TrEMBL record, chain A:
General (non sugar-specific) component of the phosphoenolpyruvate-dependent sugar phosphotransferase system (sugar PTS). This major carbohydrate active-transport system catalyzes the phosphorylation of incoming sugar substrates concomitantly with their translocation across the cell membrane. The phosphoryl group from phosphoenolpyruvate (PEP) is transferred to the phosphoryl carrier protein HPr by enzyme I. Phospho-HPr then transfers it to the PTS EIIA domain. InterPro entries: DhaM, HPr-like, HPr-like_sf, PTS_EIIA_man-typ, PTS_EIIA_man-typ_sf, PTS_HPr_His_P_site. This is Phosphocarrier protein HPr. The gene is dhaM. Residues 166-249 form the HPr domain. It comes from Promicromonospora umidemergens.
Length: 249, 235
């Protein structure tokens, strides 16, 4: 665990919360992710106690992992992003934050779709992003559907990309499952690390959700384009990753 | 216009405890009715959820009663805060954080051994504000806010007329009851019932009804006074 931002996923169902946590963990192994849900008696619902306990544990682990004597929150950009699935889980998280105001500088509630927001936040946190950036990543996942529709609309591709790309190459997907969750996470994490603006078939390559939504499987030809300082290098790196088949060929 | 010789009507921490214990009783009695109301326009768990929550509250009160605080040290707010955290941990559905926040905000304005009529109004206002802000609802949306809002207005009027604690609670409880009935023709625009749109009209809102029960219990607790059956007064 090296990421400075952790995730707590709150659902009415403990199985749903843990399932989404498992999915996000696979795509962002450096991030501490905890799924919490259900009533104390095991039924569907959310419990203040359970959410408080999960937050406490995650904050403690985060503080233990943070170098120096940082309390694990606030100024150093570390903290916890919380996602809730529906009504009462969101209300319960809000109530937890109201009960202990000292939490509010280290714990933030994201307004985001549960699965997409968790995955996007986890992948962003994996790259070492700070609390605000991870929160924004979760929140922007709600715009993913519109973004994908825009790129898939006829003749829309060019209109959405800003300016002429400084690097552009095509590459054929080689592994059978293509850009499924794990490879999409690898590519988006690499792109975030490179710092250039990269698109793959017109979608933002730093967005794991948009990459997955391409549905690119074996044999598909993808256009990789980039702008920015290290555009050519970024294109070459991404092409190499895709061409390498992500260890699945 | 406080009347002499009615010391047992003082709204202290023991009253708050009687209020909460009585609430648990009336919610248990009305469990079927609340669930039936919720089955018509919600997800049918309001009665079950509140009953589970208040039973847990009573269990916590029993634990606390085993080691009572020195007389006069326990505040009304102490009792209400225990209700708040317990409901939020055990109810499960949206009623948990909604009622929980109502009791929590009420606890914040009642951190003293005894409350007078203006303080009773402040408690009601804080509860209303808690429910409205947590649920992001306003009056007329066929929610528990309708009952809390009516209770605050009536309580304020009673206190403004120089009414006693009991007068304020009676006005609030009666207004909440009327407002709950008044939700029947409304079309829900917040909460689960809003999914039904116009089909929500013709049914009473279960949250408004349970609010009326809670406030009715507050009045009953003030009228009954301590009884020998009360574990605290027996101590």
């Amino acid at each position: 665990m090296t990421a400075r931002v952790a995730l707590v996923l709150v659902s009415h169902s403990v199985e749903l919360a843990r399932g989404v946590a498992e999915l996000a963990e696979q795509m962002a192994p450096d991030v501490l992710i905890r799924g919490v849900g259900g009533r104390p008696d095991g039924g569907l619902g959310t419990s203040l106690d359970a959410v408080q306990k999960a937050l406490e544990e995650v904050l403690t682990t985060l503080a233990d992992n943070t170098p120096g004597d940082s309390p694990g929150g606030g100024a150093d950009g570390s903290g916890v992003v919380v996602l809730g699935d529906l009504g009462s889980s969101v209300l319960t998280v809000e109530a937890v934050l109201e009960l202990d105001e000292s939490l509010t500088e280290r714990v933030v509630l994201a307004r985001a779709p549960f699965v997409e927001g968790a995955v996007a936040a986890a992948v962003t946190a994996h790259g070492g992003a700070d609390l605000g950036t991870v929160l924004e990543s979760a929140a922007s996942s709600i715009r993913m559907f519109a973004a994908i529709e825009a790129t898939q609309a006829p003749e829309a591709g060019e209109a959405t990309s800003g300016g002429e790309p400084e690097g552009s190459r095509t590459v054929t997907v080689r592994n059978p499952l293509g850009l499924h969750a794990r490879p999409a996470a690898l590519v988006s994490r690499k792109v975030a690390e490179l710092g250039a603006t990269v698109t793959i078939d017109g979608v933002d390559a730093s967005s794991v959700l948009q990459l997955m939504a391409l549905g690119a499987t074996q044999g598909r030809e993808l256009r990789v384009e980039a702008t920015g300082e290290r555009a050519a290098e970024a294109v070459a790196t991404v092409v190499e990753m895709i061409d390498g088949g992500f260890g699945e060929v | 216009m406080k009347q002499e010789g009615l010391k047992d009507m003082a709204l202290d921490a023991d009253w708050a405890e009687r209020w909460v214990r009585r609430t648990a009783e009336v919610i248990a009695d009305a469990k079927g009715e609340l669930t039936e109301l919720d089955r018509q326009i919600g997800d049918g768990d309001h009665g079950e959820n509140l009953d589970r929550g208040f039973k847990a509250v009573v269990a916590r009160l029993d634990d606390v009663a085993a080691e009572p605080a020195p007389p006069g040290e326990r505040t009304v707010g102490d009792v209400l805060k225990l209700v708040a955290t317990t409901l939020m941990s055990t109810v499960g559905g949206a009623a948990g954080p909604l009622y929980g926040t109502a009791y929590l905000r009420a606890a914040k304005v009642s951190g003293r051994p005894q409350i007078d009529p203006p303080a009773v109004v402040a408690v009601l206002e804080a509860a209303l504000e808690g429910v409205a802000s947590r649920g992001k609802a306003t009056v007329g949306e066929k929610t528990m806010v309708d009952a809390w809002h009516a209770a605050v207005e009536a309580g304020e009027a009673a206190a403004g007329d120089g009414g006693s604690e009991v007068d304020v609670l009676r006005a609030a409880a009666e207004a909440a009851d009327t407002a709950a009935t008044g939700t029947i023709p409304l079309i829900a625009t917040k909460g689960r019932a809003s999914y039904l749109g116009e089909r929500s009209a013709g049914h009473e809102d279960p949250g408004a009804r349970s609010t009326a029960l809670v406030l009715g219990a507050a009045l009953a607790a003030a009228l009954s006074g301590p009884t020998p059956a009360d574990p605290r007064s027996a101590a």
